[in-house]
Amino acid sequence: MSRQLPKAYYELLEELQATDFVLVELTLYLDTHPDDYEAIQQFNEYAKRSRHLKKRYEKEYGPLQQYGNSYSNYPWNWGDAPWPWQV
After folding, report:
1. How many domains does the chain have?
2. Is 0.70 topped by the overall pTM?
3. 3-class secondary structure, 63
4. What is the three-state SS of 36-62?
5. How far apart are CA 10 and CA 49, in angstroms?
């Protein structure tokens, strides 16, 4: 049985995925342009945004990462579905 997720869940997950995609692209760019100050500033802004979105996601919907990168609620909720990659 799958639970019904609100529209806000998908909107937040999409925003998080888009933000992390920008971080991947900026990382690749900065690997070849390490002195681009504006790109570094943009990377840091998106890194902060990503941390904020992940914290918000986990507070509202549960953990994103295992092995100590995300906290668990009580009771242990790692088995709760769906995982972000399942939607």
Report:
1. 1
2. yes
3. coil
4. CHHHHHHHHHHHHHHHHHHHHHHHHHC
5. 17
Each residue's pLDDT, cut to its tens digit, for the chain (87 residues) gives: 466 889 999 999 999 999 999 999 999 999 999 999 999 999 999 999 999 999 999 889 888 877 666 665 666 666 666 777 777
Structural domain including 57 reads: 7-86
Q: CA 73, 76, 82, 85: dihedral to nearest 10 degrees?
A: 80
Residue 10, CB-side half-sphere exposure with 13 Å CA sphere: 6
On whether the CB atoms of residues 22 and 46 are closer than 8 A, the answer is yes
Answer yes or no: is 2 within a domain.
Answer: no
